[in-house]
Predict the structure of Protein arginine N-methyltransferase 6.
Amino acid sequence: MRLRAKMSQPKKRKLESGSGSEGGKGTEEEDGEEQEAALERPRRTRREWDQLYYKCYSDVSVHEEMITDRVRTDAYCLGILRNWAALPGKTVLDVGAGTGILSIFCAQAGAWRMYAVEASAIWQQARELVRFNGLEDWVHVLPVETVELPEQVDVIVNEWMGYGLLHESMLSSVLHARTKWLKEGCLLLPASAELFIAPIRDQMLEWRQGFW
């Protein structure tokens, strides 16, 4: 599994020249007003943060970046295919299914029924992809945040690994689903992960730190 890190470019700040001390004073007053306005804004609730999270994953470009990472996608595919003996005739829960690609892999490996759970608006594309691949009788896309299934499942799959392994904050949801829906002694994919850290030297990073 290849782990990559994103680095956003520093935002350009518009510099305006002022005359004498008045210009500096005006700038200080504006900064003070902005700080006061920020303090007056109400803090977001947990629900609002969740909605922002789901909105981010509604953007198809996010999923495009993940799927076109061939090392990452092939690793998930091979992990499913190497466990093909545990899948035929089984029921699978795909937690945070995204575009439904893992559910499609499981169906191709012989799983009988897939519950593809996705709370963001990308579930619409997932349902279309399932239909396009002729798997709508096997893969059921559920556009919900908290799922209630009619049965426990034999397998749970999930793309919970993000940048730096834990960035996507999906691990807690997977563990909750495992406790509630996975039959005892059954399969969780992936079941383990390793994180390797190495020191690097990056000129852009050094420039940004030196700037401040």
Residues 1-23 have pLDDT under 50 and may be disordered.
